[in-house]
Known about the structure:
Layout: E1 6-8, E2 12-19, E3 22-25, E4 32-35, E5 38-45, H1 47-55
Antiparallel strand pairs: 1-2, 2-5, 3-4
Amino acid sequence: MRGDKVTLVGFGNFAALLAKPRTGHIPRTGEKVDIGENRRPKFTAGRTLRAAVAGGF
């Protein structure tokens, strides 16, 4: 909620990034809508998780 970064050792990092305002549309009607500035989650996989996924195939 405060925008802090959360780290889970061996798994990865979670952070909240600020998304810029943009114009979207409603697919059914084609109507344009303004989407305001908001926060989006971002996940970055840690080294251990990446190694486990890459070695599992």
